Amino acid sequence: MNTSAILMMAITMLLVTGFAVYFFVKVLRSPTKDDPA
Amino acid sequence: MSTNNERWGSRVGLVLAMAGNAVGLGNFLRFPVQAINNGGGAFIIPYLVSFLVMGIPLLWIEWSMGRYGGKFGHHSAPFMLDAMAKHRWWKYFGVFGIWTNLAVAAYYCYIESWTISYVFHSIGQTFNGMSQHEVAAFFTNYVDITTTSTGIPYEGVIFYAVCLFLNTWILSRGLSGGVEKTAKIGMPLLIIFGIFLAIRGLTLGTSGASAAHPDADAWAGLSFLWTPQFDSLANPKVWLAAAGQIFFTLSVGMGTIHCYAAYVKSNEDVALNAMSAGWMNEFVEVVLGSSIVIPIAAGYLGLEWVKENAGFGMGFQTMPFLFGNWGPVFATLAGVFWFGLLFFAGITSSLAMGTPWMGFFQDEFDWSRTKSAWSFGAVVLLMGLPTVFFYNYGVFNEYDYWAGTVALVIFALAESVVFAWIFGINRGWKEITDGSDMKVPTIYKFIIKYVTPLFLLAVFVGSVFSPRNGDWQSAWSSLVQGAGWELDNGSLIRMFFNTGIHEQLAAATEPAQITHLQDSLLLVNLSRVLLIAVFAGIALMVFLAARKRKHGKESTA
């Protein structure tokens, strides 16, 4: 693989995986809301 | 007020179900092909830009429209639009939010049934020892229905019926008891299977080279997929392809997200949930989807073969043969993983397609969950059988084009206008941010109001006037020089007039070919009549429901 392809692949995959994990963990850590009155 | 009391069992279940709705077969089979055909690594730039300015806004719009509708007991698009737009005609636009799902489920369940069949054949080691040509022929025979490679008569029809029965049964178990449970099992398994295959794809290297394919190299495939060709960024075709891919991968413009979100509590977050489900889909598509089919195919057959044959069919016509290189045990395991992950990707999407129909009949006609689920199954079976029996006559593609492509863009454009301009961006923004567990960037208020509708309009206009071979630069030059604008046969205008089939008919000389094309033309037109009839039928039900509501209000008063 050439360097630009490796860089493009690595940056994109890290970015997308990072956002996916970050938002999912945020969902898991958010407090549960009570039922609306 | 609806007597529909369904609720999600947990927030994680909701996010997984929404992500499962978005993750589909296209994540693994369509995305890498689109990337290869549109500038390799540079494709990811317009793709991610489209995700930010069109995908995320549409997710927020649909999630908040759904939760808003749910407050009034609406669990399907027609009366959600009615509640937001207040003009009686808008609810008929909402018919798209039910109709699209029926039409797409009709052919989508057929593809899903292939995955069940291929899991079955992988376990039975049907493909062991087959040549590449034989594996491809197996698929051709399978979709031909009347012929079979296994001795099971009408095998494709049987698996289709099994698949539809399974979907309907799960739907009849309810939202938390059926859909959510399936997502909680299916999504983690899909990701585990995907990671296993992606690791193999990323580490295959040149070990798959053979005497027949001495240049085979998985890294060459990855290199071709990811090398940025920045000059392609100036090509509108690449941008339209990227926007189209984002559109289809997120399952926006269908009415499924509205329906799922309608079962969210009125004070619960939608902004963070939407982001989580959306980025989970992107992980499956960009990280897993790009690391399986292309590198494994390039690793055994070479890059040139991939460039010539990259397409949706590779998943079924080529992958079982490639897995055969891993020995009988690992070939079986890889087949189960590959077709298993495609099955979970498919079923979590097709289940979502059943819920708007069910929500509508439960809300408006007090149907039970079971009755609404089985009626969905029956209608999809009736609509789907023509796609099964006449697959080779273009009926499948006709459904996919009008329901799975054009209708999505029209509905998304309409809902974005309703949300930002009729309901009003300030009220819409409040719906997005109310109860939010994340800070929503204010720039999105501007993007949702101006950029997203314009982006959608560009995608729609681009599909109506798509130039020959997607070559916009030549088309503009030709127009400026007074030589006119030559449309592509895939443009909406030419698709409407069946120009492609007519051109093939004019060029055909073999009597058998002429008969086949004439039959195709007839069947394609008949399938349109069926699609229009179903749309009209749902519109009539919406009319009756509206009248029922009006009479209900009058008698209460």
Largest sheet of chain B: none
Count, helices of chain A: 1
**Alpha carbon gap, first and last residue of chain A:** 59 Å
Order of SSEs of chain B = HHHHHHHHHHHHHHHHHHHHHHHHHHH
Arithmetic mean pLDDT of chain A: 91
Which percent bin holds the helix content of chain B?
over 70%
Q: How much of the sequence of chain B is in beta strands?
A: under 5%
The proportion of residues forming helix of chain A, as a percent range, comes to over 70%
Element-level helix/strand string of chain A: H
Strand share of the residues of chain A?
A: under 5%
Largest sheet of chain A: none
Give the uncertain stretches of chain B in residue-range form. none
How many β-strand stretches of chain B? 0
Largest interface (CB within 8 Å) is between: A-B, 25 and 34 residues
Global outline of chain A: rod-shaped
Number of strands of chain A: 0
Quaternary organisation of the protein chains: heterodimer
Q: What's the N-to-C terminus distance of chain B?
A: 15 Å
Helix- and strand-based class of chain A?
Answer: mainly alpha
Radius of gyration of chain B: 23 Å
Describe the protein in words:
The complex is a heterodimer of chains A (37) and B (557). In chain A, 73% of the residues lie in helices and 0% in strands. Chain A is an all-alpha fold and 37 residues long. Chain A has one domain (1-29). Chain A is rod-shaped and about 60 Å long. The termini of chain A are far apart. Chain B is mostly helical. Chain B has a domain at 11-114 and 167-177 and 225-291 and 349-464 and 497-556. Chain B has 27 helices and no strands. Chain B has helices at 11-22, 25-29, 31-37, 44-71, 77-85, 90-93, 96-123, 132-143, 155-172, 175-203, 218-226, 236-249, 256-262, 271-288, 293-301, 303-309, 314-317, 319-323, 327-365, 369-389, 395-422, 425-433, 443-464, 472-480, 492-496, 499-507, 511-556. The chains are: A mainly alpha (37), B mainly alpha (557). Chain A binds chain B through residues 1-2, 4-6, 8-9, 12-13, 16-17, 19-20, 22-24, 26-28, 30, 32-36, and chain B through 11-12, 15, 40-41, 44, 48, 219-220, 222-223, 225-228, 265-269, 272-273, 275-276, 279-280, 282-283, 286-287, 290, 435, 437-438.
